[in-house]
Specification:
Blueprint lengths: L8 H10 L9 H14 L5 H14 L3 H14 L3 H13 L3 H17 L13 H6 L13 H17 L3 H17 L4 E9 L2 E8 L3 H17 L3 H7 L1 E5 L6
Parallel strand pairs: 2-3
Antiparallel strand pairs: 1-2
Helix pairs in contact: 1-2, 2-3, 3-4, 3-5, 4-5, 5-6, 9-10
């Protein structure tokens, strides 16, 4: 049997990150190992790739503000599709959905300049971000597919039915984002339902029931202080632990 091929440092780092269980996060030992690997990669790895990997490491240990800051730098300076898609993922995990939209817009612009089919470069799972960030009017640039078109048309009808402004959506989202980052909780996924003219948005977090209950109360209180409680009730943001998500 031939000897096994040694893993590259970047492959080793990705193996560590991919082995993380959402409910456990990254151990201190593995975190320090990741930091050492990143230092070893500095001399021969593009800066945007390094920031991308570091943002994933920080996200995995709950350093959401640092992860977002690194993703923001990549959004501002990188034209690499993989790096930008990763930035969009970090923004989604921290509920910075306005930045998800901006990152997608940048991917669209680069794709068009390079005559690349947008469907080959654009993440397909962030259509809801346009609505929640008060940017549904920009959705025309989102690549067309039957599923996405139906989603965006439905969201336009929902926003009109709820009679909620873009500014109110942006204000609520900022409060939610601050709560997520301040409490160092990652957003696992978003789900929504619209039944009998009632909209319910569920945000699944990597936290236990007690912590999630506290965040629900914090968001409601901060919306009340900002004069957005009525608007919050229209959207019905509700946090649940990921462990309670139905398969």
């Amino acid at each position: 049997m031939p000897p096994s091929i040694p893993k590259t440092k970047s492959a080793e780092l990705m193996d560590i990150l991919n082995s993380i269980k959402p409910e456990e996060g990254l151990s201190e030992f593995k975190y320090m190992r990741c930091i050492r690997i990143l230092k070893e990669l500095v001399l021969f790895t593009p800066k945007d790739q390094l920031k991308m990997m570091r943002s994933m490491v920080e996200l995995s240990v709950g350093n959401l503000q640092q992860a977002k800051t690194l993703a923001l730098k990549n959004y501002e300076t990188s034209d690499n599709f993989q790096v930008l898609r990763n930035a969009a993922y970090v923004f989604q995990q921290t509920m910075a959905l306005d930045m998800v939209v901006k990152t997608m817009e940048k991917i669209i612009q680069i794709s068009r300049k390079m005559n690349i089919d947008v469907r080959e470069s654009l993440p397909s799972s962030y259509g809801l971000s346009y609505f929640l960030s008060g940017n549904l009017g920009l959705a025309h640039s989102y690549y067309e597919s039957k599923e996405t078109t139906i989603l965006l048309e439905d969201l336009e009808i929902i926003q009109k039915s709820l009679d909620i402004s873009n500014e109110s959506l942006k204000g609520i989202l900022q409060i939610v984002h601050n709560a997520v980052v301040d409490n160092k909780v990652r957003c696992d996924s978003l789900e929504y339902s619209y039944i009998d003219e009632e909209f319910l948005l569920t945000i699944f977090l990597h936290n236990n029931n007690d912590e999630v209950s506290r965040i629900n109360a914090e968001v409601a209180n901060n919306c009340y202080e900002a004069g957005l409680l009525d608007e919050l009730n229209k959207i019905s943001y509700f946090f649940l632990p990921s462990e309670g998500k139905q398969a």
